[in-house]
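Justification of computing resources. Each target in the renewal requires a structure prediction run like the one illustrated here; the chain below, 488 residues long, is used simply to show the kind of job we budget for.
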Amino acid sequence: MAKKNWTGKVLAAFLFDGDKTPLGMPGDEGAALVKVAAEEKFTGQPKKTALLRSAAGAQKLILAGLGKRKELEPDRVRTAAAKAVKRAEEIGAESVGLLIPDKKQAGLEPGRFAAAVVEGAILGSYRFDKYRTLKPDDPKPVAELVLLAANNRPASATLKKAVGGAVALAEAVCFTRDLVNEPSSPKPPEKLAEIASGLARKGRIAVKVLHRDDLEKLGMGGILRVGAGSHQPPCLVHLTYTPAGKSKKTVVLIGKGITFDSGGISIKPSQGMEYMKDDMAGAASVLGLFRWLGTVDLPVTVHGFAPLAENMPGGGAQKPGDVIRHYNGKTAEVISTDAEGRHLLADCLAYGSTLKPDVMIDVATLTGACVVALGEEISALLGTDQKAIDKLMSLGKAEGEFFWQLPLTERYRSQLDSKIADVKHIGKPGVAGTITAGLFLKEFVADGVPWVHIDIAGPSFTKEGWEYTPAGGTGVPVRTLAALLRSL
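Resulting structure tokens:
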């Protein structure tokens, strides 16, 4: 909408640190507002906001800081938009107009700026409160977000497309967050498979669910044995995205889907076990990505696998010392039943390899060692496709999702040697756990298949919240994977 046609009461604009006027508000009025904000120690610092009244007094103005102009990147815009909308919630605003500057003012194309604003506003407004009784004084989400063109021109087709794409992607991330935040009991494997089936789109996305009998016929011992201790049966969801035209690439995506991880016979300590509802965040990311794929047309064939199981210490559970035979016939000795996710991935990596993909990527909350190494906001990358690893790191930075490569060194492969099976599933206790997990997974990737493993044990779930990510499931790495698919 053109700014001149808007009659709302709360306007949000953006300010570079040190600029004399907000973006899209040149002239004496903008300069006067910035001067007033400076008296409140706000000069456009990143992650900061100021609440003012316009000179006419009829509107409230929220200024959101972008930091130094030379440091501008889309993630600064996402953060600023999220902070502005959060400030609007605090004052009870039902509608907010977000001022979109032109390229000359901001240094970014209006479509790119607007997309970042939309993503930040939607992702920052997310909440999971379906089980809470809301209190009268709880802030209510802003009901309406209106993008306002500072140049007062009608929105171009390019800008509309960028905004529509940003909405679809943000909604896919919120869908992923919902799946992760949902308690474990309402989302057993078959329920998640039912949700996945709802993502089917005629002629574009097909969904097939493989149940216990199907898995036995295929020889997927990893999924079957991990799920054997629960009365909730395991299953495997296979989603396939087929482009409308000719396919230029084939991509396989695999997401670990442990709907609850008790540790099995090697049971976890009780403290913090409530967070093990998030051990299916990899599978949730794959489902979220396919929700987004249902809104786009990409010349890429995408296979998504979500192996789903509960890891429980029931009477039929796998035991330390057991040997599991995986889809490709390779056997693995079980040392700890709390290192279960890699068995699910192993079956799918072996099966995915038969599809001859141009790249195969698995996503998993796999190792606590990854959190020790990289903290709570950075995912680890390991694999055989250096080009894809480099691209994920670059795209992730632009999306505000951060990755770091760890070495997949063969020097540690001997730690997985077993006397009774082809391979042990873990290496030395407390030593290079993320790397040896990657080496185990590599055993199930066929020769010549480009492969990347993403360990999201840290950033899949946050207890404190980030700039535009409230506490809980984060949706990492859906936006980066979407960017990767677009880049292909």
